[in-house]
Amino acid sequence: MKVLVLGAGVTGLAAAYLLARDGHAVTVLERRSGVALESSHANGGQLSYSYVAPLAGPGVVGKLPGWLLDRDSPIRFRPRLDPAQWAWGARFLAACNASTADQTTRRLLLLSFLSRDLTRAAITEEGIDCAFRHAGKLVVHSDPAAYEAARRLVDYQRSLGSEQEALSREECLAAEPSLAGIAHRLVGGILTRGEDAAECRLFCAGLEAAMRTGNLGVRFRFGTEVRQILAVGGRVIGVQTGAGVLEADAIVMAMGAGSTRLLAPLGLRPPVYPLKGYSLTLPILADGAAPRISVTDFAKKVVYARLGQGLRVAGMADLVGYDTGFDLSRLDLLVRQAREAFPDAADWTVLNPWAGLRPATPTGLPILGPVPGLPNLHLNIGHGALGFTLAMGSARVVTDLLAGRASPIPLEGFAA
């Protein structure tokens, strides 16, 4: 089939790669000048296959008032005259319960474990140089109640296939000595040894190179803005771009937070809204002072990953619409938190700041597969902060469904 993939971020490229390997004639359309120039450009760098619990957890509602009043909160809400923002927020609050969070976690683990195997295979088979390593992941806690709740989940997570260990403060420091700067506020942590780290932007570049130089025959049309998805008689037939019409037998929508603009004229309103995040990429100056294990500060919602000779610091979840500009107060907060954690690790005069929009659903489950009423339009959107982690698994689901095969995982909760 002739397939158009809309979007050249990690989810779009992963889909294009597996679709081409499945024998389809694939063209990737991207409005920017290259791959991974938006949400995939400088994300957290953690491939977090076992730690996929959604942001909408059972303890969130009680914390929200304090977060909304605290200028240093990991979550910020800027109200807008946008019905989609308020509708998303209402559905997010409705998802903040133990039952929904448990169900979401179970479903995401199936997708993430599938994605883990496919991501590792692609990196190995294509020789992709993306600072990939088996880093492990340590989630550190400073609140005793939060740590106890996490510790109680270890056995449950193990029953789902996730190998995790609950560590004391002393064991956290033994596993990652560079945490000495915040030892005074640690009460414990959860270690997952099987997690990976990699530079998403370089992974995307590697997929592009594999699709260009191999026998896959994928075409890329950069600087191409899709203005409309064309549909006739219950099927999509192509897209209208600034340069004219491009026809297709099937379309895969993978434009992240920008997807809703093109889907709305078709009567489709998937619950995807941007959560803005920030990152820093700091040159490592003192090797022993920078973490080797990927670290997540649970209370502050900040993640750290060593990527080659750089330290990636990422955080924030700001519900502020489609604004991609830098809020200097948020960048300053991220710098302060990172310097507290690893004061001697990096050159703090070279920040390489970045901001991007995570396309999030209220529950945390991405939306995958064909659209009811338009069976040859497939969605691959709504991955939130787990786009890199889930990209290859999502691509497998979309590729199999587009070919008329059964999904490799149960589709309940993911289906469009």
Short description:
With 416 residues, this protein is an alpha/beta fold.
Report on the structure:
The protein is of the alpha/beta class and about 425 residues long. The chain folds into 2 domains: about 150 residues, 3-Layer(bba) Sandwich (FAD/NAD(P)-binding domain), CATH 3.50.50; about 230 residues, D-Amino Acid Oxidase, subunit A, domain 2 (D-Amino Acid Oxidase, Chain A, domain 2), CATH 3.30.9. The chain has 10 helices and 20 strands. The strands form 4 sheets. Strands 4, 5, 6, 7, 14, 15, 16, 17 and 18 form a 9-stranded mixed beta sheet that branches. A 6-stranded mixed beta sheet has the order 9-2-1-13-20-19, with helices on one face. It has a 3-stranded antiparallel beta sheet with strand order 10-11-12, with no helix packed on it. β19 and β20 form a beta hairpin. α1 runs parallel beside α7 and α1 runs parallel beside α10. The longest helix has 29 residues. The radius of gyration is 21 Å and the shape is globular. It starts with a strand and ends in a 14-residue tail after the last helix. The model has no long low-confidence stretch (mean pLDDT about 95).
